[in-house]
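Protocol step 4 of 6: record predicted structures for both targets in the notebook before any analysis. Target 1:
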Amino acid sequence: MAEQKLDTQALEHCIEMIGGKWKPIILFYISKGTNRFNKLILVIEGINRQMLSKQLKSLEKSGVIDRTLYPEIPPRVEYVLTSKGKSLLPVVQTMNRWGKKQYAVKTKTPEPPKNQQLPLF
């Protein structure tokens, strides 16, 4: 019973860190080199500035990403994965592969039956 509780707590911890609609997507794009706020807002369809800011702050607080502010005019901010964030990439990649397979099944149009004779009347 104690092991089941530990398993549940471990899953809850993982979901707290990367759960929700946006965090895995943000991690995916940061891992691909899209690490500036304005680039992220452009490539992530459907997210608004407020939500992106909130999710980035949450990921930073969890230690999954690092935020670097460069003292320039205008200020430049970049996000990179920490070692903890990099350790999550296999999870995000597995989610991506699974999602691609499920999406392909969902959008596949049924083929008409082969070698079936049409009714005469």
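Target 2:
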Amino acid sequence: MEETMQSVSIQPFPVGQTVTITQANDWDSGLCDCCDDCGICCLAFWCFPCFQCKTVSDFKECLCLPLLDPYLMGYIGCGTACPPISMAMRASVRERYKIPGSICDDCCMLCWCYSCSWCQMAREIKKRKQPFTFVTAQTTSVQMPLQQNIYPKL
């Protein structure tokens, strides 16, 4: 009995892989780029405490964290000190996403542009949460022996 080899090609199948790309760059949007995401700015305008809680939750921190800023510092003006929770949040966003800056910069942004600073953080968190998905296909060749007909011919 003679065996011959036949090449069989297996059809490609998609292989899904999720890759998160971390970039060491500046903020994706500027402090006053509210038109980059009108939904974020509208929520901040109409219900700022809800917006803050959603932003912090999207960042995977405690939902009520922004409500701990004393005396509503961010809403009525900073006075002599920066709102500590907002300051920690901005510094944490910068640190996680490798955005250059300093605590002094964060303090200035929060003292003079409190709501815009929160909108900028929300846009950055939203942008960085979107993973990139690549789908690839690969063809594999396999050598298989040719099978002889084991039934007798009639």
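Step 5 preliminary note on target 2. The mean pLDDT is 79. The two ends are 20 Å apart (CA to CA).
Proceed to step 6 after PI sign-off.
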